[in-house]
Amino acid sequence: MTSSDPVAIKFKNVNYSDGKLPILKNINGFFPKAKITTIVGPSGAGKTTLFRLCNGLISPSSGETIVNERDINYYEPTQLRRTFGLALQRATMLRGNVFKNLSMPRILQDKRLHKNEAKELLNDVGLDPNILERNVKDLSGGQRQKVSIARTLVNKPNILLLDEITSSLDQVSQLDIETLIKQLNEKYKVTIIWITHNLQQARSVGDYTWVMMDGQLVESGEISLLHHPQHAKVKRFIKGEVE
Amino acid sequence: MSFLTLTLSLIFVLIPIVLSKTLKLGLEKDTIIATIRSIIQLLAVGYLLTFVFDSDNFFYLVCMIILMIGAATQNARKKGAAIQGITWKLIVTFIFVEGLTQGILLGLQITPPAAQYIIPISGMLIGNSMVLSILFLNRFTSEVETRQEETELILSLGGTPKQAIHMPLIHSIKASLIPTIESQKTIGLVQLPGMMSGQIIAGADPAQAVQFQLLILFLLLTTAAVTSIMLGLLSYPTLFNKQMQMLKIRE
């Protein structure tokens, strides 16, 4: 990763504390534009907190976050969040059917999502368009996750934040989602930032990677870093010696 | 009723104490405290009301209403301690409810502008408003906690705090209104309301007592709806900051 690459998000000396408890410590780094960056690290490393900083759900205790070359505070919060798509491990759904869930980003802007658009979105994520009226309670884990990804695409985001989206899925669904995300990245040139605990997945889908441990960015760079890390702590993590 | 017969009615306090002791429920102390408090409070209010009615002074009437609002606020604020500035929100709500209902009653000459009417009706309205506030705050804080993920999802999709809190707010308002609406459905069938029973026992014409009771029931419906909605609208903005971030609910 070089400094001349176009940057989607950049962090400068970012710290975040929950009360007196430091969660993120002096984060300096960036996510390149239109690429897939995977974030790996043990539990409690601050990965999810970093995502919440990116779309402004929380603010840093100190430091700067630059999104698309502007300070994050430049954006009006709702506008900022519409440039991001966020999908979570649990694929949180609103009660109701698939169409209601897909429509929500538009309803929030007092606009309508047409059924044909919704069907196209389902098609984009590899789902049968006929499940539009199905209650989300009746979907499988993989289907829910795909609906959640489709929902993030309604706002046509520049950046997709994916937090452990395949960790509760079976092998087939995992591979399915990996392929889907790569396709979305290629088709729409969306910047993808993907938190995963699966190192094999991080290596296979990522162009770049961040390794976070204990609230710090320990190492970042090309995906080959996960094969040949420099830092001793990262070497131990990759060998599975750090949980 | 003489003091002797009133003393005899203490048998009804002895029964739960004996039952509690026998079944080891551990409620004897609370029962005794509650009884002593109710005797002192009601006797004090009785003498105070006699004084206020006899003096026929507007200032004392206002003082009585302020006292009621103060006591109701003190009681309800504990349930909303997690919400910033809940004391003022409750005071504003109670004052608004009292002003609105008494404004309609007196403005349309439904009740005469006399302390004998204003104080008891205010007591019922503020008391009901207090219970509604407690029900609402209890439900709202729990809805906010359990639906936090859903609320943050809507914020993440570019929703405003008002949009994000819509469902918890609506559910809490509905849940707090249900007891009032349900109890009105069975009124007269299951229970005779306290005020009406009191008037009938005191020798009033039952038809007249029913008319007054209906007036109170309609007032309570307004009180319930206005209290929940107003408290909800005043409370939810304090759950978010200027950056439209959801704040942690205070322990």
Automatic annotation (TrEMBL), chain A:
Q: Which UniProt keywords apply?
A: ATP-binding, Nucleotide-binding, Transport
Sorted alphabetically, the Gene Ontology BP terms of this entry are:
phosphate ion transmembrane transport
What sequence ranges are listed for the domain ABC transporter?
Answer: 9-239
> What are the GO MF terms of this UniProt record?
ATP binding; ATP hydrolysis activity; phosphate transmembrane transporter activity
Entry GO CC: membrane
Q: Does the keyword NADP apply?
A: no
Keyword Nucleotide-binding listed: yes
In which domain of life is the source organism classified?
Answer: Bacteria
PANTHER family assigned: ABC TRANSPORTER I FAMILY MEMBER 17
Protein's name in the database: ABC transport system ATP-binding protein
* Native source organism of the sequence: Oceanobacillus polygoni
UniProtKB/TrEMBL annotation, chain B:
Extract the coiled-coil ranges from the record: none
Q: Is Chaperone tagged as a keyword?
A: no
Q: Which GO terms describe its cellular component?
A: plasma membrane
State the membrane topology: Multi-pass membrane protein
Q: Which domain of life is it from?
A: Bacteria
Record keywords: Membrane included? yes
Membrane-spanning regions, if any? 58-76, 88-111, 117-137, 214-236
Going by the UniProt record, its keywords in alphabetical order are:
Membrane, Transmembrane, Transmembrane helix
Name the UniProt record assigns to this protein: ABC transport system permease protein
Against Pfam families, the record matches this protein to: UPF0014
Q: Which PANTHER family match?
A: PROTEIN ALUMINUM SENSITIVE 3 (PTHR30028:SF0), UPF0014 INNER MEMBRANE PROTEIN YBBM-RELATED (PTHR30028)
Q: Where does the protein end up?
A: Membrane
Tell me its family: Belongs to the UPF0014 family.
